[in-house]
Amino acid sequence: MEVITINDINDERVELFTKYNEAQLYHYFEPNGGVFIAETPEVIKRALNRGAEPLAFLVEEKAFETEVVRQLFENIDESVKVFVAPLNVINNITGFNLTRGVLAACRRPLLPEPADLLAQSKRVAILEDVMNPTNVGAIFRSAAALGVEAVFLTHPSADPFYRRAARVAMGTVFQVPWTYFVKDSDYIETLHQAGFKVVSMALKENAIPLSAPELKEQEKLAIVFGTESTGIKDDTIAKSDYVTIIPMYNEVDSLNVAAASAVTFWELCSK
């Protein structure tokens, strides 16, 4: 690796960290993919362990001397540049105080085809228009912990590689396989063709409790969670094999989608 000291945050050599927002980085190498920014040593370590290709690092000078950060550089290519800057310079980057002193710019990997990922899985989660990165990250963390084999998203959903999503997920977005369904496709039909029974988590009169034995008995199960504001689309519910609710008390009728996913994964996906 090549270590370079930076004293001006406007130095063009660190433009990946300072010039572009995450949406612009997504298309940075278009048509050949893009870039994502990983932050905190824990998240970066998980990304690298799962094969992420680092392009550059930006590190606060005191953090650069710590063992936990030094370990990140042990197996990287010698062509990768590590930019080191004092705190008063690097603090001008929005949100840097949350990074624990280190950022990594990595090339975005190609996502698997939905059919290929479905063929390898028996318990999957579907995020239908879940647009809050914090919720997406929390769902991935629960998915990794509780036996979900893959996560699928519809296109309005937040990118799991967004910094906030990856940070909340503690890097598990790099461990749990995931992909997007083709935009505007009938993804329920795709799931059915792959042999999955579809469970929509929704407050409907015909909903069965999450503990219903026929749910866990299914060989292949796809669990759908809807957008934070309006829930799962009516068309999706109509095409689902089951509509399910989490029984609750004290006149509470719903949970945040991230909390609901954790309860659901524990019941339906844990071995």
From TrEMBL:
> What SUPFAM superfamilies has UniProt attached to this entry?
alpha/beta knot, L30e-like
Instruction: Give the UniProt record's GO annotations in the biological process aspect.
Output: methylation; RNA processing
Keywords from the UniProt entry: Methyltransferase, Transferase
What is the residue range of the signal peptide feature?
none
Domain annotation tRNA/rRNA methyltransferase SpoU type: ranges: 124-265
Q: Which Gene3D superfamilies match?
A: 3.30.1330.30, 3.40.1280.10
The question of whether Translocase is a record keyword is answered with no
Pfam hit, one: SpoU_methylase
The answer, when asked if Iron is one of the entry's keywords, is no
Among InterPro entries, the record links this protein to: Alpha/beta_knot_MTases, Ribosomal_eL30-like_sf, rRNA_Methyltransferase, SpoU_MeTrfase, tRNA_m1G_MTases_N
A GO molecular function term, named singly, is: RNA binding
The protein in question is named tRNA G18 (Ribose-2'-O)-methylase SpoU
Gene source species: Pseudobutyrivibrio xylanivorans
